[in-house]
Amino acid sequence: MTEGPSSTASANPASEVDVGLEFAGLWLSSPIVLLSGCVGFGEEYTRVAGFSNAEVGGICLKGTTLEPRLGNEPHRVYEAPAGMLNAIGLQNPGARAVVEQILPALDTTETHFFANISGSTLEEYIDVARIFDDSPVAGVEINISCPNVKAGGASFGNYPDMSAKVVEEVRRVTDKPLITKLSPNQTDIAENARRCIDAGTDALAVINTITGMAVDLESRSPVLGNASGGLSGPAIKPIALLKVAEVHQVAHRHGVPILGQGGIASAQDALEFLVAGATTVGVGTALFYEPLLCPAINEGIRDYLARHGLGSIPEVVGTLDWEQ
Amino acid sequence: MANPYPAPHGTIHVEDTEVLAHEEWPGDQLVLRLYAPETAAAARPGQFAHLACDPLLPMRRPLSIQRVGPEAGWAEFLYKRLGFGTRLLARRQVGETISVMGPIGHPFEVDPEVRYPVLVGGGVGIPPVVFLAEVLKDRPGVEPVAFLGSEVPFPFATQPAGFPVSGVPETATHADARLEDWGVPSRLASGAGLAGAYRGHVPDLAAAYLEPLAPTERRRAALYAVGPEPMLEAVARLGQRLGVPVWLSLEEYMACAVGGCMGCTVRVEEPTGPAMRRVCVDGPVFPGEQVYPGT
Lengths: 324, 295
Ligand SMILES: Cc1cc2nc3c(=O)[nH]c(=O)nc-3n(C[C@H](O)[C@H](O)[C@H](O)COP(=O)(O)O)c2cc1C
Ligand code: FES
Description:
The complex is a heterodimer. By secondary structure, chain A is α/β, with parallel strands linked by helices.
């Protein structure tokens, strides 16, 4: 692709542009993926009149561990400038309960559901991946970047050797598409991405939340029960865009797609991520404010592609004019 | 086994509402009335709405519903100007647009066996109690009584009480004028020495009313409480002591308010053991003994 996004080649009618695309061996009807931890186990937003899972290409389920977890003490969420902090602590009913009790109720004809797996040990990641391998999920997202649990999570994500080890072992136990979710809280995200690609990941999710904290001045204590939490929302968008562009430099050489995320709240945000190198775009925190956002993002992407004479999403992916 | 997270479809509406009235009361209290027909049509006492207080705010704010006019399409809220969000909300003027998600949560369910519902509201916990009183006023064979507490002037008109409430101290002379209109007896309490109010805590009034009841009557009573934590705990303990069932409505910071983020959980003790439950969709109303287990 040489044509930049400012190209104004002959416009197509927006209605003719298909926002469907291939991602990690799957066909997605939209580049939008609802993000892990923001939409429960896939059904919660259907409480909202007018909301449909069919508007999005995929849904990442809440982070799941081998055993049930109660998660952190309150408070778990708190507003931050242009965003929010969360420290949920991976509250989930355990992988078996997800597979046996929750997945059967999901309508897998509407969209693709991805498990999001976490663990305190390498063995736990492997066990959870095995359980989801024998389930109707379309793929498995490996969360090696959760900032909110003491053992595991981020401690795997912040060291390329350990990240690669998790991916390699999970790869051994499942043939389902693997998405590895990278942490922004590390020195060289591109190097970590390269190692995860070598270890066999099919896609990369960039980025998870950035660690932060809030202070209660009256009690002089942290607001969050877990003290620290993960920052999400528009506040982290510029950071996420840079990380996506950096990872893209490495990933595109291997044909590995990126699920870009961090503060996406509009079609314009989504398009910026696509241009920076994401193939799909994650929406999480923005849904909390505007639950019916997704159709407008799809529409805005269609309009943009049509205006620029582009027929499909892949034509815009990674078209950022940036020599490194 | 059943899905542990059932999600009833299409029950929460997202609507752009118009500010119909925005009244300020002493003590930084505001009463907001919105044209929110979908929320108004479906709302029940104990439920709340999630408001986009100002486009500049990253997060919505949950506010309990105080009253609705389903035919006219309005929903009313009472809130205190406390933090950044409510300060911005307080600046919104009649005619402006506010996005509302609602109604949300499990309402108070008053069991058909209950003849004497005792409603206890403190501070910004008053709205659900007013809503519940308005709904119960029309229920045949039910004799609700409401006790309202505040440390700042009450955010509603008061008047000398016209209906007797047995047992309560004589210093509690006044009632909520709206509840008087509806024929629902009420009494007021305040530590701040407000005129017409009993000087003390609002659960004391509930205790004074319930304690003298005959066991047969007490068996048909239940407590429904919304307010600050010490008040909720006192009501829960009162219920345990007298063998009266207790329902509490809880508050917690919220992000999604639809059950998606697990951000608003509280620790409860269920028959199967400890659990973290979401205030937004598993609550906000919980059985008192789950929130404050008996010792
Ligand atoms: C409340 C909340 C819970 C989250 N839980 C998880 C999780 O369980 N697993 C995970 O991989 N990411 C989790 N995340 C991170 C999001 O999936 C996403 O990567 C991040 O929020 C950035 O995107 P956003 O700004 O669009 O929300 C969570 C985020 C939020 C706000
Ligand atoms: S606020 Fe998200 S689950 Fe309640």
